[in-house]
Amino acid sequence: MKKPDGKVVLLGDMNVGKTSLLHRYMERRFQDTISTVGGAFYLKQWGPYNISIWDTAGREQFHGLGSMYCRGAAAVILTYDVNNLQSLIELEDRFLALTDTASTDCIFAIVGNKVDLTNEYALLLERADESRPEKPVTSCISTKVQKQVHLDDAVALYKKILKYKMLDEKDVPAAEKMCFETSAKTGYKVDYLFETIFDMVVPIILRQQAEGPPQTVDITNYKSAKRTKSGCCA
Ligand SMILES: Nc1nc2c(ncn2[C@@H]2O[C@H](COP(=O)(O)OP(=O)(O)O)[C@@H](O)[C@H]2O)c(=O)[nH]1
Ligand SMILES: [Mg+2]
């Protein structure tokens, strides 16, 4: 297996659909019940790079996530459920602090999943496919619910994150560009989400590679390297 060049992590409350989003993107399908305990990450080949995409493996539910989870991440996908306001609030209250160990130039995306359950979905589909002459058939509209979290709320959170990270709005991608609404169930905007992020991660990978491996100094190697250099008796 090739060593990953860059790391992307999914964060967010239990049940918002993190595993389903990753599964939809990598396996091209949706299953109503997928074991949330399982694989830690997927590898995605993106151009010449290998990007690892990390899932929480269900640990957000029982044990919390350690600081290792986001360590060195080039991108963090903060995920909430558009029908559950609390899941957006949790991103700020519980999950944002976990990103302290991410790369200093890490990019943040905020993703509202499960839009297929809302009464706005038909409209979103229509907008996404304006070339289509006829309006989509909005069957079973009665089962749809009023969306609880709006894109503006996600944009507001994005701006709070910039404050928390002490970043200037001018130096980072615009909030509107980094707030997404998706459906892992139908696949709506799932490819767009991941691929937008991968494109943005490439310059970070290049910088990380130019700077060499992070901070950790291996004393054993350092010593032996020095000895070889000075041409010691060996
Ligand atoms: N309707 C709908 N259900 C979803 C969607 N994404 C996930 N789910 C369901 O929500 C539940 C939790 O999903 P899961 O991916 O396990 O969430 P995780 O705990 O964040 O990994 C499962 O029953 C999924 O089938 C979606 O986009 N639309
Ligand atoms: Mg999961």
Automatic annotation (TrEMBL):
Catalysed reactions, semicolon-separated: GTP + H2O = GDP + phosphate + H(+)
Cofactor(s) of this protein: Mg(2+)
Domain of life (superkingdom): Eukaryota
Entry-linked SUPFAM superfamilies: P-loop containing nucleoside triphosphate hydrolases (SSF52540)
The name this protein goes by in its record: Ras-related protein Rab-20
An annotated Gene Ontology molecular function: metal ion binding
Subcellular location: Cytoplasmic vesicle membrane; Cytoplasmic vesicle, Phagosome membrane; Golgi apparatus
